[in-house]
Specification:
single chain, 476 residues, alpha/beta, D-Maltodextrin-Binding Protein, domain 2, 5-stranded mixed beta sheet, 4-stranded mixed beta sheet, 18 helices
Length: 476
């Protein structure tokens, strides 16, 4: 009995020593953190959940006196969190968001200029146009740390489907897309179709329709020369009629009508379609899901060697901002300089090619070879276009007012309505939408005393050619 009690006492004593040691270690860790400078980083980019922890761990090892506190925000609720932080003038030191534009942040004096981080010699290391006015810069100052450089859309192809059916060529023209699509449907006895895309993803349909329309009508979407919107162009009409023709001839999967981009991608990997239209992030998603038997090409054109273009323009969520009220600028600057040297490599490791620098300039082992193909196609299709914000920053107010009061439908929804038969008069529907959109645009301009129609007009714009500082100066 005495031995038993003695054993129990020893156990309690040992446990007490362990608890005391743990408390001591915890107290020491708390004390160590208290001695560090903490900078707060809010991230609302999905991919950032992967690469930021890796980068932060490495940075903190190099700078043990600095702690980076990462907060990964929920995309759906992040706008409310930013609204509250702005109202309280309590933004984190570093943050990413698409809830507000660069122009809005600068107008509200909420963001720190980054000229020290991006002197001219450093800017030259980035893709040309990244630091254009309205992209990472405004009023001659850099405000956005560029991480990405926008995006565009592609046609992905399932190599296994093509190989199984003995098809050697990937279609480059509309005519070839229809012919190959019919061949795939016939040879597979209807188990596979030629093309699929997420018809229920309105943003995708809207963007792809405009991109394809620019081959025949470069003013499709917005006419930079005249300063108005055009959705009833030949390019739009023929692009939408193409999709209807593909559907009627079994070259376009009818599942397109019912699926969003996620489901369309799943049907593509399952071999139910040979071709998928989707964005630059698709390659990364296919690879992450274990499907690597694919390739990527530009969207088909009506004419051989036809040319399409999309705007080269950074969105607010393509980079990082620094709060104007940060109390730790020196530490933030150190972290940003560290990111300059390391973030792009980590992003490429994940398979996202559209970093703000040229992917080919980064020495890294890529997860799949098509990363370079996606980057190259983007470079060929994305063109620097006129930006009214450069001429008059107040034009952003007109754009925001237009977004709130624009018609509910768009060219993408008209396309889907035409495929289902709900839209019978295609030209009439596009013309009505164009008229309604321009009416809302004109109203927004007239209600803003600081803006005129001329701020949106660039008569020296040449389609498919980059619009640079030289062209802006010509207008003065």
């Amino acid at each position: 009995m005495v031995k038993k009690c003695f054993f129990i006492m020893i156990c309690y004593l040992f446990l007490g020593i362990l608890l005391l040691g743990c408390q001591s270690d915890s107290s020491k860790a708390d004390k160590d953190d208290a001695d560090k400078t903490t900078i707060k980083l809010w991230n609302n980019v999905a991919a950032g959940r992967s690469y930021f922890p890796i980068l932060i761990e490495k940075f903190e090892k190099e700078h043990p006196d600095i702690k980076v506190e990462l907060n990964n925000l929920n995309v759906e609720s992040s706008e409310a969190e930013y609204q509250a932080a702005i109202s309280d003038r309590n933004l984190p030191d570093i943050f990413s968001t698409d809830a507000f534009t660069l122009n809005e942040f600068v107008d509200l004096d909420l963001v720190h200029e980054l000229n020290e981080v991006f002197p001219k010699d450093v800017q030259s290391q980035y893709t040309e146009g990244v630091f254009d006015e309205g992209n990472a810069s405004l009023n001659g100052n850099v405000y956005l740390f560029p991480v990405y450089k926008g995006g565009t859309y592609y046609m992905f192809y399932n190599k296994q489907v093509l190989n199984d059916l003995g098809i050697d060529e990937v279609p480059k023209t509309w005519k070839e897309l229809k012919e190959v699509g019919i061949e795939i449907y016939d040879q597979s006895n209807g188990s596979s179709y030629g093309l699929i895309f997420g018809g229920q993803s309105g943003w995708l349909v809207r963007a792809v329709t405009q991109l394809m329309a620019t081959e025949l009508s470069p003013e499709s979407g917005y006419d930079y020369a005249n300063g108005d919107y055009k959705y009833d162009t030949q390019g739009y009409v023929e692009t939408i009629k193409l999709m209807k023709d593909l559907l009627d001839s079994n070259a376009l999967s009818p599942s397109t009508m019912e699926t969003d981009s996620t489901v369309a991608r799943e049907l593509f990997t399952a071999g139910q379609a040979a071709f998928l239209i989707d964005g630059n992030w698709t390659g990364q998603l296919l690879h992450e899901n274990g499907f690597d038997d694919w390739g990527v090409v530009p969207l088909p054109t009506k004419n051989p060697n036809g040319q399409q273009y999309g705007e080269f323009r950074l969105g607010s969520n393509d980079g990082l901002y620094v709060s104007k009220d940060t109390e730790h600028w020196d530490e933030v600057k150190l972290f940003l300089e560290f990111l300059q040297e390391n973030i792009y490599r980590e992003i490429l490791k994940d398979g996202e090619p559209l970093i703000a620098k040229e992917a080919s300039d980064i020495n890294v082992e890529l997860p799949f070879s098509e990363v370079n193909d996606i980057a190259q196609i983007f470079s060929e299709m994305s063109v620097r276009v006129p930006n009214p914000v450069v001429v008059n920053p107040k034009t952003q107010e007109v754009r925001l007012a237009l977004q709130k009061n624009a018609p509910d439908n768009d060219a993408g929804s008209i396309l889907m309505g035409y495929l289902t038969g709900q839209v019978e008069d295609l030209q009439g529907a596009l013309t009505d939408f164009t008229d309604d959109y321009n009416a809302a645009f004109t109203k927004a301009i007239q209600e803003n005393e600081n803006v005129s129609r001329e701020d949106f007009q660039f008569p020296n714009w040449v389609p498919y050619e980059p619009y640079t500082e030289k062209e802006y100066q010509e207008l003065k």
